[in-house]
Amino acid sequence: MTTRRKAIEIVSAAAASVAFPEITRAQGSGSDKRKALDHVVVLMFENRSFDNLLGRLYAPGEVKSFDGVIGKDLGNPIPEWAEQGAERKVVPYGVSPTMNTPQPDPGEEYPHINTDLFGILDPKNRFMPLARMVAPYNAPGDPRQRPTMDGFVMDYISAFTAEMRRQPTYDEYAQIMTGYTPQQMPVLSALARGFAVFDHWFCEVPSQTFTNRSFFHAGTASGYVVNMSPPDSFPAHNKAETLFERLEAKGLTWRVYCDSPSPASFTGLIHASRLRNRFATHFSTVADFLEDARRGRLPTYSFIEPNLWHGHNDMHPPISALIHGLPYDPPSSLLGGDALLAAVYDAVRSSSSPRGSNYLNTFLMIAFDESGGTYDHVPPPPAVPPIRTAPAGQMGFTFQRSGARVPAIAISAWVPERTVVNDEYRHTSLIQTLRKRWSLGPPLTARDASARDIAPVLSLGKPRAPDEWPEVVPRPVPTFDVALLPPDLPLSPLGKALVHSMLALEKSLGAAVPTVSPDTTLTGAEAIAMIRDDAFKLFPGLRTTS
Q1: In this structure, which topology does domain 3-49+187-372+382-468 adopt according to CATH?
Q2: What is the DSSP letter of 167?
Q3: In which element (H, E) is residue 245 found?
């Protein structure tokens, strides 16, 4: 039995037996509202828009206001140059037929998201991989232009063709215009209905993982827009001050928990120039989080990364769908993510330490780093540049536009059920909230200075007891055996970013590393051979015995 599974079983047993009222009688319990944010936990998933996962959460009239998809005539035009299905003119928005769509993964980098948002696709960039795309990278001429949200089909056909070397059929590209029902995602949906869901929460950059995750903790990405152009961009040159350091300066604690078998932390790599000397002390596993929650010893701030590696449970769309006729990741990342969410939620709900972290003083936030190119119908708003006087960043982006709308859920004993927050929020709202809660000093950047505080969402005068919180039961997760993964399969884009970031970091530390071009196709076996041992030396807390 794995360490993680043992920890989950311990938490489940605690949930069944704990005497919750004892907490409120204990001295220093955090039972008053002023302590509601004593312990903040963020679980951040990958690459899903709001419409994709929560657009069908409420039907019209169920709640006062909810900007979803039910009852709306939503769709995207089919470009005339599509080889199949162009005569249909439009792809209407529908329900995903499987738990593994869109497959293959949509384009998520800055030029792809520009096409999604504005319906602009330079003919020179059509059917091209990112490395061969040209300026201005499908961006509008005026950064103030309002997004039309009508280029998702166009970009998906182009990106599919670049990857698969053929144009997709209508049914293949219609996947990009589908999303999930509450029945398909029971845990995420139950928690969104049982607490507060934000229907206007936006990621910070219209692009991919590293830049948005950097904004989440630093309010900037040092001008970078894509993951690894060049490979050492984030690990060596992202020198922005982080929320983690502000917490330390105030004498507060933090920890990053990564789900196994992740060999390295993306948070650590993204902020390596600032956090390198904390790799051995502040990074551990989700199994450790479950145990820390059970024992009431959660730090002030906990950030949880799903498994972004083989058999990933990060809710990321299927990676490289079929390569050489073999499925890369047959288990559903959505089902795996829903199960991980259930374990984390149950750990918080059942936490009952009379003097440490417990269900009364722990706030759980569910977030997604970016939309990943999945469809959403709400145009992202303008944004304040992190540094108003800074020159344009990578690919000429001026950081005056937000990324797409993404799912966000606030879970606390102090949050009313069936709450829908309609105000505009964004990733840097977390920085704003913790700065105010703990008097952490001035804003990190102009971006987090302009973000809304989450604290008012915790609006109850009397906390909800855990037996009033939703019960969650995840659907069965397909079995994934990493030993059965063909070793010659090309590495996923996210895995490739991890490998190149690790190599760049090791090189910056003076280690001798192999020279690997970003354009080189690496297999999973090659990647593991290159970085696994060195990764665990850098992040010893991520090594497990399973």
Answers
A1: Alkaline Phosphatase, subunit A (3.40.720)
A2: P
A3: helix 243-249
